[in-house]
């Protein structure tokens, strides 16, 4: 089993600690947190070993799980990579695209693997339909959250929207050629509500909306492609697939048939796949361990995380245009 150490024991760090401890594919060695009181309390309550320094934790790990504030991602990753350790980085990968690109360069130089925590890739609803999403031409996403002071120190694009940016980039096999956006700062210094329109070279258009001051939570994406409509509810972990095919000559009593102005008839039918229950964070951590053990590419690469961050910053820059 690969030894994993967690850097950062905040809200998400505690979740990573719990799941790594439960994992049958990972050996949790402990954590480091710069707040000695928090580290001592957590160690006493849950029994995890609290390391005295970052360097000590890195030295004893095979995988360094970086769940620290984004501002420190680069420095933590650099220390781990230069020590020859594999890194799992929570999203966003880094505080800037330049830092992210340097992380990629360092990982290649020291021959270590890296994965970015874009957890929606492991959401069972997205997994159930991903292979059915073929050449989508219009995508619409809504990621709305009730207000929570935690996370308002960064733009909503980096906090919430980046999840959908990554998911969209993973299914649209084309480069982004245009970025349009608007954002409104309601309670923070940076936008709390944002909308972005991505235009891809192949003609696909993605309309992305995120808010962190909504009255209810919502995480939905809809993918429209020729002869199919696919809906993913990340929050409810459900999906819907509506397809069209040529109508039979003699439709059944319950068949849903549409006829256009030219007289062409199409049959509408549902093709909803099974959604298997899972723990997405545990799965992403264990998939990383499997990639290391089998020497295969990680499911969310450092390049993936960098591409999502690059588009996120293009969206932020477009606010002022």
UniProtKB/TrEMBL annotation:
Record Gene3D superfamilies: Dihydrodipicolinate Reductase, domain 2, NAD(P)-binding Rossmann-like Domain
InterPro entries: Gfo/Idh/MocA-like_OxRdtase_N, Gfo/Idh/MocA_Oxidoreductases, GFO_IDH_MocA-like_dom, NAD(P)-bd_dom_sf
Domain named Gfo/Idh/MocA-like oxidoreductase N-terminal: residues: 2-118
Pfam families to which the protein is assigned, alphabetical: GFO_IDH_MocA (PF01408), GFO_IDH_MocA_C3 (PF22725)
Residues making up the signal peptide according to the UniProt record: none
Entry GO MF terms: nucleotide binding
Domain GFO/IDH/MocA-like oxidoreductase span(s) in chain numbering: 156-216
Stated name of the protein: Gfo/Idh/MocA family oxidoreductase
Provenance organism: Moheibacter lacus
